[in-house]
Amino acid sequence: MSENQSPQPEFILKKLWQLHIAEAARTPSLATQILERGQRLAWRFVHFYRRLWKQPRQMRRFIKLKVAGSLAAAALYLALSGAPA
């Protein structure tokens, strides 16, 4: 990738997924859910991340600052929660 190109959204989502899954896997109950759900959980994460990203900036800031620390963390929480996609 050259200096002028920005990373593709899929690449960014993959890196966010890997980062947050590695962190969540340190918690035994979450690690079990991650292993059981596998690819389906990854698709849910991407779905929720994209939905959160489409929210107005004020809502995204609220989520990052008050709720989850990051949109990726919020997306992972939603994916694990079983909330309807």
Describe this structure in words.
This protein is an all-alpha fold and 85 residues long. It has one domain (9-81). 76% of the residues lie in helices and 0% in strands. It contains four helices and no strands. It has helices spanning 9-24, 28-53, 57-68, 71-81. The relative contact order is 0.13. The mean pLDDT is 78.
**SSE string, helix = H, strand = E?**
HHHH
What would you call the quaternary organization?
Answer: single chain
Integer tally of domains: 1
Helix content class: over 70%
Count of helical stretches: 4
Task: Let me know the number of strands.
Answer: 0
Largest sheet: none
What would you call the shape? globular
Which runs of at least 5 residues are low in confidence (pLDDT < 50)? none
Structure classification? mainly alpha
Cα distance spanning the termini: 33 Å
Mean pLDDT: 78
Measured by DSSP, the beta-strand proportion falls in under 5%
Work out the radius of gyration. Answer: 14 Å
Short synopsis of the structure:
This protein has helices at residues 9-24, 28-53, 57-68, 71-81.
Secondary structure blueprint with pairings:
Blueprint: H1 9-24, H2 28-53, H3 57-68, H4 71-81
Helix pairs in contact: 1-2, 2-4, 3-4
Task: Write out key terms for the chains shown.
single chain; 85 residues; mainly alpha
